[in-house]
Every structure is written in structure tokens, then in C-alpha cells.
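Quick one, C-alpha cells below. Sequence please?
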């Protein structure tokens, strides 16, 4: 193991220890009951871009649960008008969901978001956190925007979010939570920190950094929302191995 990796692991243990105190996480580790959520979109502008796919992965006791799906993860495509894809060739090239695929496989937005909200409400009722890779910075803002456009009164709670991307970033730069600092404040602070040579992409960094190939993971299959949920779950498990090691 390189000296850089050793330093990162020392940072991670301190980060989790501090968050565990303020958030009440058990046993000074990342909680093991969580619902992973991910989205694929037509772009990054929450005002004009749309979500084209939503993924979920249900985890209980650090293991994938099949309470609502027989598979390790689920993803559902959203039916959007042709106009939503105009000028979005870059995004389509990433996730492969074009108008034809959306029309063929998609479900109406109101049904898609009701399904997601129902899944999240059930997860909350079971004491689960809502987890995702860059969830705080990207997926939550665009989900809030889409829900608002549909008039669905739903918001993610500040204290329920577990952002694996912010943890991976923070362990590299050694930013620690302040005394009594809650996770949502910490995620925001980490997000705003700029540093060269710091990477946290799921496919381009985490698959290799945490040796996710040992689970059969491949960066070539990334950018399906459900698959990315599974990858984020694997990252949580590897981070907990570091904390407990």
C-alpha cells in the first residue's frame, strides 16, 4: 500500500469517528442500513434538464436486500417528450438513453416519482439512510427540481443523506468534520473545497481505487443508474473495511 493510501485511510477513520459522534452512527462506522439512489439525466442544469433514469439499491445489515426487487439493484427509465433530448447528444452518449429508448421503455414521470417517493418513505420508516455517490451535490438538487415541477411535495431531509463521493474526496484532502458539525454541513464544505489531483468518480476512480473488480464490477457498465447504485454500495462496504481495519 502506498503512503498516500495509508494517509487517506487515517483520514477516513477520523472522519467517520467524528461523524459517528454527531450523527449517532453505531460503532463508529458508516451505517449499514441504507437505500442507494442515483439518476441519469439529460444534463446538469436543474432548470432545464431532465432525469431520464432512476436507480435504487436496498441495503440491510450491509447486505443487499431483495425486499422490493429480485435483483441486486433496480432502474427505471422515464418517458420524456422528444424535445427533452434535443441538443443532449453528449448526455445520451454517456448513458445511452435516447428518445426512442425513453418512449419504448419509459414510464410516465408522475408514476416514476411517486414510485421513488414511496420507496424512500418506506426506507425512512425502517430507519435507513439515503445514500448516493455525489447525491448531495447533484442528484438531490435535480430530484428536488423535478419534483417541484410536478407539484410533488417531497424533500430529502438534511440528516438522512450519506454521500460516498464526498467521503472519498474528503479522505484524500484530509478535511475533518468540526466539533458538533452535522453531515449536511460537512458535505457542503467538502463540496466547496478545490484541490488538484483529487478524484472521486465512480467509474474513473473508485472502481480501481477500491478494487471493485473483486465483486465483478466494471467501469464499462457504469452510467446505468441502478448499476451505479450497486457500485456506490460497494464503495460503502470498502470504506467500512478501512474504518474497521
Amino acid at each position: 500500500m502506498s503512503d498516500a493510501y495509508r494517509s487517506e485511510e487515517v483520514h477516513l477513520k477520523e472522519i467517520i469517528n467524528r461523524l459517528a459522534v454527531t450523527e449517532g452512527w453505531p460503532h463508529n462506522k458508516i451505517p449499514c442500513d441504507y437505500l442507494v439512489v442515483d439518476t441519469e439525466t439529460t444534463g446538469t442544469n436543474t432548470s432545464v434538464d431532465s432525469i431520464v433514469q432512476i436507480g435504487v439499491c436496498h441495503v440491510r445489515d450491509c447486505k443487499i436486500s431483495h425486499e422490493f426487487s429480485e435483483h441486486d439493484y433496480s432502474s427505471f427509465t422515464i418517458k420524456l417528450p422528444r424535445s427533452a433530448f434535443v441538443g443532449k447528444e453528449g448526455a445520451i452518449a454517456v448513458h445511452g438513453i435516447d428518445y426512442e429508448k425513453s418512449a419504448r421503455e419509459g414510464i410516465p414521470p408522475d408514476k416514476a416519482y411517486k414510485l421513488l417517493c414511496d420507496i424512500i418513505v418506506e426506507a425512512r420508516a425502517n430507519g435507513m439512510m439515503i445514500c448516493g455517490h455525489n447525491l448531495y451535490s447533484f442528484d438531490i438538487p435535480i430530484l428536488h427540481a423535478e419534483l417541484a415541477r410536478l407539484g410533488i411535495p417531497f424533500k430529502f431531509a438534511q440528516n438522512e443523506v450519506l454521500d460516498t463521493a464526498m467521503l472519498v474526496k474528503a479522505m484524500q484532502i484530509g478535511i475533518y468534520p468540526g466539533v458538533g458539525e452535522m453531515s449536511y454541513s460537512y458535505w457542503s464544505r467538502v463540496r466547496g473545497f478545490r484541490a488538484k489531483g483529487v478524484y472521486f468518480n465512480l467509474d474513473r476512480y473508485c472502481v480501481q481505487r477500491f478494487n471493485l473488480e473483486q465483486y465483478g464490477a466494471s467501469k464499462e457498465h457504469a452510467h446505468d443508474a441502478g448499476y451505479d447504485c450497486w457500485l456506490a454500495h460497494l464503495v460503502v462496504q470498502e470504506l467500512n473495511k478501512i474504518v474497521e481495519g
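The mean pLDDT is 95. The longest helix spans residues 3-23.
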